[in-house]
């Protein structure tokens, strides 16, 4: 036992010196017992103590006060002196903070976490509450959420039961991982056997199973399916490139060219690129009617856009020029749309300032795009909306000139029933104006308006913004300043500038005359020493500008 290593030097710069000292003292006592030095004289044991504690400890020992030289070499006295030196540096508040905030680390085992908590609890001097507080912090600090929920549901739970439950849960989790690893290893070995048989070219159980399933689908055999099934890594279902089922690396679309995007490796039905027009060609139809401004055909083929000589800049790639009213107009082609609409608004002044909207529609399929005029005619008055007064006057004037309902309807492109209703309404009421519709309900009630009037009569100088805030605080409604002004105007109250009062009274005038008589005889040198100020009106509260009242 003579070769037994002694304890390491004590580090006096630690944060928790008291705990480190207790731990080192326990190690030293065990070292004395193990080396059979506990029965030796005090001088020998004290010398061993000073040797093991290190140079820093020996320096501290030289500064300690002893009553006699014998006490300086007495081990029990020396240990008591070191206890007094290390214990005052113990901070209970900080130690308890570390205990209450101690949680289980990511890779820390449950037993290690329990030992750490118990060591921290012993340093905090909780007394009889040590086990109870340790149990609470242990439940709150564990990382296993399921274990924590199960422990919180348990009634009358103590520290021992909590430790047993945590150890059991951790052991069960480790055993489950071992079982899962064993099953995965077995599956990998089976897959490896399948691969070796396939490389040898033998007729494996997988091949027989595939043949049997194919025969059953065709109705040619009633034989039962094979015992083993092919692993998924050797057979592809619903291929993303061809859409069929096949063996891996046997896709029929491997060297095929897509008809849509012109790329290799997939069929057109599985293409994920967006649709676009590869080339635009314009053919003019000279046999169109006089009223038709656009009647042209747009065709598309499979060549690339950048090969067209007409398109010189990138911004012109998806544009086409169409002739409208003998003028070339550039239109942008929407390559992803099946129908492209071009709107043209025409004004017919002969029918009384009535607007007709013509819609040019481009139908596009995979090979042909056609432009058609007058696909739909949008009338000026939409369904459910009243006609304007000007249009009603036109209808009535045409009726007074002797035109019938049918001719008026055709002339201005309005339903005949609408024409009849307009004329009959004028004959019955004698007016063409539209009926006034109900507006939005008022936000202020009669009671709120009375409150506003009462506030104004109490103080005519109150502003509309302050009145709005007052009403909002009383009624709980969000009222604007404009609303308050409009309601006060309807009640007969308007903003006015108050009548100007006389600035100087008789007393003011007499005091100024007496002041002038006193200083009128003063010389110029006297007035040079006087500091003059202007007569600007400075109000501590309110504005210096013009004040208005209701």
Automatic annotation (TrEMBL):
InterPro entries: Homeodomain-like_sf, HTH_SB, RNaseH_sf, Transposase_Tc1-like, WH-like_DNA-bd_sf. GO terms for biological process: DNA integration; DNA transposition. GO terms for molecular function: DNA binding. It comes from the Eukaryota. Pfam families: HTH_SB, HTH_Tnp_Tc3_2. Residues 179-228 are annotated as: Disordered. SUPFAM superfamilies: Homeodomain-like. Residues 451-520 form the Transposase Tc1-like domain. Residues 184-201, 214-225 have a biased composition (Basic and acidic residues). Residues 382-431 form the Sleeping Beauty transposase HTH domain. This is Uncharacterized protein. It comes from Octopus vulgaris (Common octopus).
């Amino acid at each position: 036992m003579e070769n037994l290593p002694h304890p390491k030097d004590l580090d006096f710069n630690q944060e928790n010196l008291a705990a480190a000292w207790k731990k080192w003292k326990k190690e030293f006592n065990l070292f004395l017992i193990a080396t059979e030095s506990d029965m030796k004289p005090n001088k020998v044991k004290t010398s061993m103590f000073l040797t093991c504690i290190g140079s820093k400890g020996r320096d501290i020992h030289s500064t300690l006060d002893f009553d006699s030289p014998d006490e300086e070499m007495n081990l029990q006295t020396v240990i008591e002196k070191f206890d007094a030196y290390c214990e005052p540096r113990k901070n209970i508040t900080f130690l308890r903070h570390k205990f209450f905030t101690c949680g289980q680390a990511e890779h820390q085992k449950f037993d290690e976490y329990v030992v750490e908590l118990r060591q921290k609890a012993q340093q905090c001097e909780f007394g009889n509450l040590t086990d109870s507080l340790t149990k609470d912090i242990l439940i709150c600090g564990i990382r296993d959420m399921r274990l924590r929920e199960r422990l919180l549901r348990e009634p009358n739970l103590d520290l021992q039961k909590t430790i047993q439950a945590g150890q059991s849960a951790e052991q069960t989790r480790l055993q489950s991982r071992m079982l899962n690893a064993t099953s995965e290893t077995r599956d990998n070995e089976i897959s490896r056997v399948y691969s070796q048989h396939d490389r040898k070219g033998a007729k494996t159980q997988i091949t027989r199973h595939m043949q049997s399933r194919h025969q059953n689908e065709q109705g040619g055999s009633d034989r039962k399916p094979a015992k083993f099934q092919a692993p998924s890594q050797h057979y592809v279902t619903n291929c993303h490139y061809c859409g069929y089922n096949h063996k891996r690396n046997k896709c029929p679309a491997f060297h095929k060219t897509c008809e849509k995007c012109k790329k290799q490796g997939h069929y057109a039905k599985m293409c994920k690129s967006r649709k676009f027009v590869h080339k635009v060609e314009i053919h003019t139809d000279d046999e169109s009617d006089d009223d038709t401004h656009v009647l042209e055909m747009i065709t598309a083929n499979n060549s690339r856009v950048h090969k067209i000589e007409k398109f010189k800049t990138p911004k012109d790639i998806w544009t086409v020029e169409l002739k409208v009213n003998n003028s070339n107009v550039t239109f942008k082609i929407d390559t992803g749309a099946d129908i492209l609409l071009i709107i043209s608004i025409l004004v017919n002044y002969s029918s009384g300032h009535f607007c007709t909207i013509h819609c040019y529609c481009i139908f596009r399929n995979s090979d042909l795009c056609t432009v058609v005029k007058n696909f739909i005619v949008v009338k000026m008055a939409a369904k459910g909306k009243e006609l304007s007064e000007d249009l009603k006057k036109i209808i009535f004037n045409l009726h007074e000139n002797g035109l019938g309902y049918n001719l008026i309807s055709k002339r201005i492109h309005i339903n005949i029933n609408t024409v009849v209703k307009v004329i009959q309404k004028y004959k019955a009421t004698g007016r063409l104006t539209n009926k006034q519709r109900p507006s939005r309900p008022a936000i202020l009630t009669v009671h709120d308006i009375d409150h506003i009037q009462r506030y104004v009569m109490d103080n005519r100088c109150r502003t509309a913004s302050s009145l709005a805030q007052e009403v909002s605080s009383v009624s709980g409604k969000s009222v604007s300043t404009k609303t308050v002004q409009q309601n006060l105007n309807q009640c007969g109250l308007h903003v006015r500038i108050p009548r100007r009062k006389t600035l100087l009274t008789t007393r003011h005038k007499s005091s100024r005359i007496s002041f002038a008589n006193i200083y009128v005889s003063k010389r110029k040198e006297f007035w040079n020493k006087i500091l003059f100020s202007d007569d600007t009106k400075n109000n501590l509260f309110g504005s210096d500008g013009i004040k208005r009242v209701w």
